[in-house]
Structure formats: structure tokens, C-alpha cells
Amino acid sequence: MPNSKNPLSPAGGYRGRFAPSPTGPLHPGSLVAALGSWLDARKNQGKWLLRIEDLDTPRCIPGVDQEIMRQLLACGLSWDEEPTWQSQQQERYQEALERLRALQTIYPCICSRQSIANTLEASGVTTARNQEIVYPATCRPATIPLNEVITHPATELIIEGSWRLALPPNCSIDFEDLALGKQHQDLNREVGDFVLRRRDGLFTYQLAVVVDDAEQGITHVVRGKDLLSNTARQIHLQKILGYPTPSYLHLPLVLDEDGEKLSKQTLATAIHTENEQQALNELRKAASYLGLRNLPDGKAVSIAEWLLAATQAWDRKIIFS
Ligand code: GLU
Fold first, then answer.
1. Is the CB of 246 under 6 A from ligand 1?
2. Does the bond joining 145 to the residue before it have cis omega, within 30 degrees of 0?
């Protein structure tokens, strides 16, 4: 569908992306996201961009970005424009933060994880493991405007803290996932005012991804289902910043024996792509998670032939079948 508001894709052509964090080489789970986003872009004659999400510098491993690129190319998953690195886009994020500040929708917060946990505990709120911690709005000024210097009442010192987005009341987001169908999230109840810049000065994933998706004219965000619960936040931010909202498609996750998502944090092992046969095996495994069946098997098939067959077979309706 033509997206007239999108400066970088005036003709409304499909623009997708793969956005790995260089915290470890590609593992079977991240290959599913890479392959699914690549196939969706190719099936729609679109462009597929590579963005290295290296903002969380303490977690990034030097050289892993190059390793991820080698793995992608070994799997035949080539990108269409110059790759980008989030670490090189700081001004963009700062500018977006300044705009939000001018709109009086953000406020500084001095809470630590521990003080938030204590506040929640004192008010009888329990948060299960893996569940979102809903910020109890401790630092949220009672009145807006917020763009004055905020002092901490206990110390009367001007404190450098994180910056949180002040959600308006009744902030519920509805969207249609291209594979999972209707989605709904009540941001006030399920998320609370969320952080856009951390107290250590790093911009958060939520802000950076929204700015980059808009700057790069992304029309389709295809990524793992583990990120589904972030989407409503991102749509809300897009609305405030006046950006178009792309289409979203969330893909199945690869789980370990304990039913946990395979991730770099769970020390998932890297995929093997040292030769074409190994890379093809990894692609075949990834394809099986995407509902793709009856693709050419055997050793005689090349990666290029296999990817062509996979592109022809790609169908959003069968991903979760
Ligand atoms: N950088 C994120 C990750 O590696 C992906 C972000 C996204 O696709 O929106 O999990």
C-alpha cells in the first residue's frame, strides 16, 4: 500500500529489515528471524536492509557484527543497501528525545531497579519472572509541563537520571499482526511509563528502533515473536513523533528443551555456515519453523535454488500452521 508519509519510499515499495544485536553470532533462533524477514521481502519484491543494533554497548561483542554478516552471506541472505550501525546514529536519537521533551511528554526519573521493586512490593504488587515490571510512576510529576528542571524532593539536588515517556491516560493500542491477527495492549496497565534514555546515557531499544524504522522508510517489520510485546510501545511512540506505522509480522521462536526461547543470553550455539552444505542444513531447519514444507532436499540443490523455492513457497498464512 502506498505510504505517502514515508520520505524514503515515495512509491510505497516494500522495505523490510533484519536488526540483529551483535551480542553473539547468529543462532538457530535468529536465523529464523533473518530468513523469515528476507523471504517476506523477496516475495513482495521488496528491499531487505541490515541494521546492526549495537546500542547496548556493554552487551555487544567487538567483531560479532562482521561474523553475523559472514553468516548471512554464507546463507545467501544478502542485503540491498549499506548496512547501518545504531552506535553511529546517536544524534538522531537525541533529536527525537529533544522533540519529545519539547512536546512535554518525557520526564527524568531517578528510580533504581531496586527502588522500583521496593515500591511495588510495598504496594502489594507482585511481578512474575519474565513479566513486564510496570513502573509505578514514582518520579512522574503531578502536573505537566515537565520541561523545567526537576529536583528530587528528598535531596533538592538536580539529579541526572533516566528519561521516561509519560503515557496519556487510557493508552491502549490495537494492531493487526500479519500472521497472528488482532493484537491489543493496554500500555498503562501492562507497561507503564517506559524508559527512552537510560541513566547511563544510552538510548533504549524502544526509542532507537522507532527512529530507525522511520528514518529508513521501513514498511514491514518482520521479527521474532519475543518482540511482540514491544510493538504497542513502538506504535505509540511513532504516533507521538508523527512517524508512519509499518506493518508487523512476528515469527515463531526456537525453544530449548525447557521451553525457553533460544537466545544469546541462554548461550545458544552459533549456526554452522563454514561450507554450503552446512549453511543449507541450517536454512532447512529454520524453514521448518516457518511452516515451509516440501522444499527441495538432497545435496544436489544449491543455496540459490533452495532460496528461490523457499521464496515461491513463502506464505504468511502457514507460518503458525
Ligand atoms: N535487535 C533486536 C534483537 O536482536 C531486534 C529488534 C527488532 O527486530 O525490532 O533481538
1. no
2. yes
